[in-house]
Amino acid sequence: MKAIIVGCGRVGATLARMFAESGAEVTIIDLTSDAFRRLGTKFRGTRLVGTGTDISVLKRAGIEGSDVFVAVTDGDNRNLMATQIAKTVFDIPLVMTRVYDPARAAAYREMGIHTLCTTSIAANLMFDLAGGKAVENLISELQIVRTGQKPAEPAA
Questions:
Q1: Going from the N-terminus, what domains does the chain have, and what CATH number goes with each?
Q2: pLDDT tens digits, residue range 93-103?
Q3: For the segment 52-62, what is each residue's pLDDT rounded down to a tens digit?
Q4: How far is CA 61 from CA 25, 93, 99, 121, 139, in A?
């Protein structure tokens, strides 16, 4: 698997390490080289300074032929632009983004971009917990979202 990640904040760096540790070929792009410190010294992927909306940067990152493209910068607009380029210009099979604005999440999904709105996810989880919903049920729901399948029942 070949993955391109735009944004080397906490989420981007963690995801890049996960991909690399699973054996994927991963390139992570960020505006500043300082951000790459989050990757640690054992990271074996490629680090590239630039913007995920610049086609020449994306080509240097090896976007052509990539399987997965993820945009997790701190800007919803940058993430949308980067994912639209990955989807429409480079026809990447799986394009995902993280957004903060719940109003934008639905619009991004309508464009065919797999979208996680961390604001909505956190707010809904906290609301459910405040209402007495069991943490185990919340974890099960998250597993369903991640895999598309219900988790296995624990052995009796």
A1: 2-117 (3.40.50.720)
A2: 999 999 999 98
A3: 999 999 999 99
A4: 11, 17, 23, 31, 35
